[in-house]
Automatic annotation (TrEMBL), chains A, B:
InterPro entries: ATPase_NBD (IPR043129), ROK (IPR000600), ROK_cs (IPR049874), WH-like_DNA-bd_sf (IPR036388), WH_DNA-bd_sf (IPR036390). One of its GO terms (molecular function) is kinase activity. Keywords: Kinase, Transferase. This is ROK family protein (Putative glucokinase). It comes from Actinoplanes regularis. It comes from the Bacteria. Gene3D superfamilies: 3.30.420.40, Winged helix-like DNA-binding domain superfamily/Winged helix DNA-binding domain (1.10.10.10). The keyword Transferase applies. Belongs to the ROK (NagC/XylR) family.
Length: 385, 385
């Protein structure tokens, strides 16, 4: 039944005959399942299919009335979309918000945005909500667990409160996992079963997709690669250890290093930008590199090498079929990618890298909400009695 | 059906009533399945159960006639067992053999040992064979793939030839995976779903058990952690790279380092052993450490630290619930274990290590054959029409 709903969600209206062929279901079995799904309000008839020679088959589609809310909370942003059963966005809001304001304020704002969509007639009621947060989550309990950059959110009952508010199933997951799910649904990892999604933003995290499913680990913190030590003599990390990957290379680390070379004058491109705007971002480093500033290029290469070393270890360990690089620092683009590839291909065994694409995310900013919508719809489908 | 057979294999004779309760199967469903399994020759009646108050239930058991062959090929050894349906060994052979003699010679010897068991009346025919080899394996194709220490074995049709010879299903896997399966069946990882089994022998490898199953990766080489770089300036590895984990710490590396400190006189304990026997083994280092030789203790600690650093990364990535240390170097015992624990607990985030036992294998030398027997029986069970 889940397979029928997923096929209609992902591939659109289809004749009963073709659907049966595609999923390998017998005619009576399929007819029975479709009847149940129509009765449950999840599938609708959609007219007659073109003839395949014999009797014409009726088209079925995911019910056009279905509505899912997809929420992606970042360290400094809220993304909210309401989508239909095909996961097409009907409305999308994006605004700045500091996650450190705490769960009450942030979830209140999410509620206001969803109420606005309802008032505008986008939906009458929601069939499920998917929400990603920038920290570790107990997927089973639907709560954040000791999230380092989310004060006040520890064990806050996000799922329970949203489920009560909207009267529907709610899925809570961490931001990197939902990005991986999104990229597999509509991006470069479409239908890839085993891949790593590496998010390089303020910090660094990794979404792990194994055998077609998100792998979350025993405590839900699998993929927390930002705190792997890459340089015993490196800078102190927010976690208290020294030389963690994200203390050496991440959005925050890159800005820190960029300020040093701008102030020392080692990088004319960054010095000029700092003078002009009074601050520096990762984009300034990317632009400097594009202009040929050697210090900017070196900053990106050094970071790519460190990340590549960690990824080479993970390739030896997990033997995935693809690595996707996403998050804000993916804008460092091909200089970064070239360095990561070079290290991964050199440091892992040929059998594991013979056919291992290392590629940039296609969905970039929309990966998170897309994945949240996928998880929301799956949760709704799984609750059909 | 698989669940019924596994329960009878792992837990022994049981009444139909209790089996139904344990597996959550209705009476008619269970009766039907049991009839099919009796007809297929995999299950037998085993008398009456003690009364539970109502009508007495009949006992069923895994058929006492079932026979599986379990083979564990090491770099320098052949282990062959023939077991019954409860995986109890009926005969066990262990002998030295150099895997580099090539597949024809080695598999011929395996065939001779199995023929000997048949002549001795241990079995009439085999129901399945499980075999582990010391190198990467394409599990799907049943062949070794580019195994570094197994010249002549690349893509050799091990499964096909053994299946033809014995007329039964055959499973081929790598030695570390079968050890992990064995440890989960009858050792310290019993019924643990997510754990890492780290084998430190001549080389280093890792068996990965996720969500209750062996995780093999896309090309079957997941867990190949021996070639993760731990020291850019370290010794050259057999793979051509420098500073790989197993070039820095493994059976071969430890003997190399032990010879250096024995010859230089830095370690009196090792110098004396070298003079006495003309060679050194990992056991000499373990014995030296037990006697308090500080250089021996340092060798083990340094190795444990390197391995611990790699394991800390893998804990951050995979968030397992247990790490099991096995293979020949597990005899380095508690000095090694203490160092690994110290690094892993210090370098990984609290959420992942709050409840993470790092323990020695319980089955040690028998882990491999035990796992091969488990995989063989699963293969036989899965083939029942």
């Amino acid at each position: 039944m889940l397979s029928i709903l997923r096929a209609l969600r992902d591939d659109g209206p289809v004749s009963r005959a073709e659907l049966g062929d595609r999923l390998g279901l017998t005619r009576p079995r399929l007819t029975g399942e479709i009847e149940r799904l129509i009765k449950a309000g999840f599938v609708a008839e959609a007219g007659m299919a073109a003839s395949r020679g014999g009797r014409r088959s009726t088209l079925v589609e995911i019910h056009p009335r279905l509505r899912f809310a997809a929420v992606d909370l970042g360290a400094g942003s809220i993304d909210v979309e309401v989508v239909n059963g095909r996961l097409e966005p009907l409305v999308a809001y994006r605004e700045s918000a500091d996650i450190r304001k705490g769960p009450k304020a942030i979830l209140h704002r999410v509620g206001e945005l969803l109420a606005k969509a309802r008032v505008e007639g986008v939906y009458g009621r929601l069939d499920a909500v998917g929400i990603g947060v920038p920290g570790p989550v107990s997927f089973r309990d639907g709560v954040p667990v000791s999230p380092p950059i989310m004060p006040g959110w520890d064990r806050y009952p996000v799922r329970e409160l949203l489920a009560r508010e909207h009267g529907c199933p709610v899925v809570v997951d961490n931001d990197v996992n939902i990005m991986a799910v999104g990229e597999r649904h509509g991006g470069v990892a479409r239908s890839v079963d085993d891949f790593l999604f590496v998010k390089i933003g303020t910090g660094i995290g990794c979404g792990i997709h194994l055998s077609g499913d998100v792998y979350r680990g025993v405590d839900g913190c699998a993929g927390d690669i930002g705190h792997i030590q890459v340089d015993a003599g490196g800078p102190t990390c927010s976690c208290g250890n020294t030389g963690c990957l994200e203390a050496v290379f991440s959005g925050a680390a890159l800005v820190r290093d960029a300020l040093v070379v701008a102030r020392s004058g080692a990088s004319p491109a960054l010095a000029e930008r700092l003078t002009r705007s009074g601050e520096l971002t990762a984009k300034d480093v990317a632009d400097g590199a594009a202009e040929g500033d050697v210090v900017c290029i070196k900053l990106i290469r050094d970071g790519g090498r460190r990340l590549g070393e960690v990824l080479a270890s993970l390739v030896s360990f997990a033997n995935p079929s693809m690595i996707v690089i996403g998050g804000g620092l993916a804008q460092l683009g091909h200089v970064l990618l070239a360095e990561i590839r070079s290290v991964v291909y050199r440091r892992s065994l040929p059998l594991a890298t013979g056919n291992l694409p290392v590629v940039l995310s296609e969905l970039s900013g929309r990966a998170g909400v897309t994945g949240a919508a996928v998880l929301a719809s799956d949760a709704a489908f799984e609750q059909i009695p």
